[in-house]
Amino acid sequence: MKRNVMSVFVSVCVVFVLAGLITMQFADAGAVSHEGTATVKAIELDKNIVKLAHGPIASLKWPAMVMNFKVKDHALMQGIKVGDSVTFTFIQSNGDYMVTHIQPDK
Question: Could you say which architecture CATH assigns to the domain 32-104?
Fold first, then answer.
């Protein structure tokens, strides 16, 4: 009887741990993305940060401002340099605003 109780307890714990891991893995997948246009003011790839002077972000009711954004992947910044006008997409992730897509304006 003790063995069955222990087996059920371990099984329940495993299910909760797996459910937590799955939830954490897909947390960003459900994040709302926002889009904007900006001028690149600084790039700090060693810190995964890009400083953007962006226009208003309607979806967040933000006015134009200059702020730092985390960069999801260094590869996103290839071909982007300080002074470029860009269009970018970002999400809020773990309390930070993270750029998920960025491209120079044509």
Answer: Beta Barrel (2.40)
Gap between the Cα atoms of 22 and 26, Å rounded = 6
Tens digit of each residue's pLDDT (9 = 90 or more) over 41-83: 999 999 999 999 999 999 999 999 999 999 999 999 999 999 9
Of 88, 92, 73, the residue nearest 28 (C-alpha) = 92
Report the alpha-carbon distance of residue 57 to residue 97 in Å, rounded. Answer: 13
SS3 97: strand
Q: Do residues 40 and 84 make contact, with C-beta atoms less than 8 angstroms apart?
A: yes
For the chain, the 3-state helix, strand and coil shares in percent, each to the nearest 5, are: 35, 40, 25
